[in-house]
Design brief:
136 residues, 49% helix, alpha/beta, Oxidized Rhodanese, domain 1, single chain
Amino acid sequence: MDTFISFLIDHYYLSAPLFLVIILLISSNAKKGGKRISSQELVALSNEDKALIVDLRSADDFNEGRITNSINIPFKDLDDRSHEIPSNEEKQIALICEMGSNSGNAGEQLMKLGFKDILILRGGISQWKMDNLPLI
């Protein structure tokens, strides 16, 4: 470990760009597909009827427990079923998956199809459960 740190220090002109690239990649991936929101922010938007919640999990997972008023369009079916998402509404589209990883990719797909105001639940339904929020 000491050798690695010594290498980084001795070759700072190589280390600095590497760290910069790593930070930019992480930052870029964190913004991919839409704005990340917390469970509490989603609750507020849902209570004000300002968000359409799209659950990207499988139908089986969706039926085991879902957020109130959410619709189910599994991630693998998104291209074929994106027409089920109203695009002319005043509502933002909140994407939910199991851990938050598929939502960014789904958000990218929807943006390419012309959808705007994409939100992604940070941590997915797992975070929702950890926050002890209700599922139906």
